């Protein structure tokens, strides 16, 4: 039997400042976090490094500048640094047996990763938005499949295990464009396209560096029909890309259809939709770690028929409550 006790304490404070003058507006913030954590595994078997203690202080600056050149042109520059902590299960060194030749194991030495994000954007006429973004992730962690040391074999076969590890530093450079427009009174269109390059610089000798340029596209067409009916045709395409830091996936796409109507003074909304009409969403991927080639794929139920009904009991004139992700919600997302 095994018992893993983990405690984590985060003390944080932040300050924000905003200022506006003429055509310029500024926003700056700084958040400080001091983290102390202890993880200890109590096991019937002897386990190396059963106690892991960490104590670290981090600073997370953020800021943005917006320049409203005229009524139709706006420019923005933003920077932020943030932390992404692993979920708690990924830290638990307990072995979850999958079969005779494989198991899943947490990594108590898994470090959080840190993301630097710089974004330059331009908006024309409050519709056409173009942005150039650079993202750098320190100590990127990913799920890998590794083999046990050569001495630990099962007959002629060598067991493998799945584990989260800090494997690389990630860099992403992307250019995106989005544009909603009306063709006429009954036909509106929304289009977005992004091209980006993702590259990984190895910090783990078993990890093979990866680099891939990717293009994705999304389009939605909305048609107003007689008697308050609305018909939508939407689709997306994603070229070959890197998934999870270790796999290269083949191109994917989907074509979706939807029919919608509102009743009872627009309080009741009914919609019927079909997703992935052409069944182009099944995926295949290939990767390699520690000279171990891995291939995978899935044919999930992407083609679906859906009937949705929703009724609004509230007053549509009232302003909706502001949605904000709380610290409790962030911690809940780390529990799996």
Structure overview:
By secondary structure, the protein is mainly β. It has one domain. 2% of the residues lie in helices and 67% in strands. It has 1 helix and 19 strands. The chain has a 15-stranded mixed β-sheet that branches. A 4-stranded antiparallel β-sheet has the order 13-14-17-18, with no helix packed on it. The relative contact order is 0.09.
Number of spatially distinct domains: 1
Radius of gyration: 25 Å
Individual helix count: 1
Sequence of secondary-structure elements: EEEEEEEEEEEEEEEEEEEH
Question: Could you write a compact summary of the structure shown?
Answer:
The chain has 336 residues and is mainly β. The protein is built from 1 helix and 19 strands.
Which helices and strands occur, and which strands form pairs?
Blueprint: E1 2-21, E2 24-43, E3 51-68, E4 73-84, E5 95-99, E6 102-105, E7 113-124, E8 128-147, E9 160-184, E10 187-202, E11 211-225, E12 229-238, E13 241-243, E14 247-249, E15 252-263, E16 268-275, E17 283-289, E18 292-298, E19 304-311, H1 327-332
Parallel strand pairs: 6-9
Antiparallel strand pairs: 1-2, 2-3, 3-4, 4-7, 5-6, 7-8, 8-9, 9-10, 10-11, 11-12, 12-15, 13-14, 14-17, 15-16, 16-19, 17-18
